[in-house]
Amino acid sequence: MQQSRARLFKEYKEVQREKVADPDIQLVCDDTNIFKWTALIKGPSETPYEGGVFQLAFAVPEPYPLQPPQVRFLTKIFHPNVHFKTGEICLDILKNAWSPAWTLQSVCRAIIALMAHPEPDSPLNCDSGNLLRSGDVRGFNSMASMYTRLAAMPKKG
Amino acid sequence: MEDAAETMYWCHMCSRLVIPVIEDEIFKCNFCQSGFVEEIADTQAADSDDQNNDGEIDINGQLEEIRRILSRHSAEIVNLAEGIRARLLIESETNENNIDTASVPPVSLGDYFIGPGYEMLLQRLAETDLNNKYGTPPATKEAVEALATVKIDERLLQCTVCIDDFEIGMEAKEMPCEHKFHSDCLLPWLELHSSCPVCRFLLSTADDDDDEPKTNDDNNGGFSIASMERNGSSPQPSSNSSLAN
Known about the structure:
Chain A is α+β, with helices and mostly antiparallel strands.
């Protein structure tokens, strides 16, 4: 408990320093609970998520960093490895390949990498995975960018 | 309404069968008023292939999907099963509401799964997931005790578990792959897992004695950062095994 707090506090200070270094990630700690974080990440360029800003919710378990944080998308996203309704993310480093050397910041980077490189063979969103698996890249891009526009971009007017 | 009685409509917003309201020749869902309503094939046509594509419960397809996913991904199957259950609830609700119009699906998954058996299935799948989730097995006591304790003689070296910098002259535990950590940081991790936090070098585990060699490659994630690392410049367990002695 004490260790996880100390480590999260370190990460908090690190985040303040890195703000300028990585403009694609904005990590914010809950005002009253250091185990709750949210992040805003920019959709990677040259993907259907480009131009969108996606919100992630982090719930850090007490044994952190021995156990991975639970992360999910709060912003709706059409992606094979993200559950369309719950925002749950299918990513090895958040499960069996977790290592305490990962930080909340680097987890955000991994999620951005996942957005740019979907893995349709282990889909949480089967519709999305099936489009890619059947080679319908155009259909996938069209759906993904539609949802980016609908959910991840500021409303006009 | 005569039309609606013969044809089934699926609302993509509500994810359920609906009786659409027709306004100015536009079909609208009677629940959410959206226009995202699709006509689905006449169920009386009894063409099972058609039904599969039209939102009807396709038990073979779903079981096939369960089987396929089970081999890889138990977290998903729980999800899938929950999804199927949610859908069954919706279906039964729809059937109650529209008893005159909606024809009952020929076979319901509920006939097979609802009840204690279904709960047990979910339970078992959830437990299987727990085993998967935690990655490599713990390192053996012998391997942990054999770890070298070294004095830090480099500047700007960091323990990646607590992200604190080492001070020169401080004692640290060194893995065979030469990655160094505070003893208090490394040992709790090795009680859970045998891998180096930085490069995934594997210490020997209790499982190594088993007849069946275990691989560390059960990919539980959509995108394997771990395998990218392994293919990259990080030290590989195999190439480093000589250092273990």
